[in-house]
Input
Amino acid sequence: MNPDRIERLTDKQRQCLRLVYAHKETKEIARILGLSPDGVTQRIKAAMRTLGVDKRRDAALMLAEAEGLTAYPRQVDPSRDIASVPEPATIAPSIEGGRQYEASSVGAMREEQAVFETATSLRPRGFQLPLPIWGGRPSDLGSLLRLGWIFAVMLLIALTFGIFLTGVEALSRLGRAAG
Output
């Protein structure tokens, strides 16, 4: 590591690299520093060129080592795409009237299963709309069902356009008959 290269970094470049070291994304860095995402990207790329590295994490690590931080910090903000694994909580069978139902009829289930059961029971079976309603997500539809909806929408548009053209033709005939 060349200390001259570290000294050539601007304050804004150093701030950006510190936030990269803290596992922040470009948009988050832009929001924190009050810059545009393109401005952040330009500063990081300029810092990478100055330090002679190809990856932004390497540049951030070089700056951190120069500033006395040796251990790479654990990921503070976990990725939004990865859900954390909760401890499986179970819901025991209900006791009604002082008597417990048989385990075979009700049984204990994990809390996530109970939530899933209630969310899926709200959705009607068989006919699924391509909209996120009844607790569903837009990605719940399979590819064949999506193609079916695309075809149905195209057919509806063609039918509506045909009715419109028929109405225009009827009005033009009415205009010719009156004139």
Summary: Strands lie at 90-91, 95-96, 99-100, 109-110. The helical segments are 3-7, 11-21, 26-33, 37-51, 56-66, 111-122, 143-178. The first strand starts at residue 90 and ends at 91. The chain has seven helices and four strands.
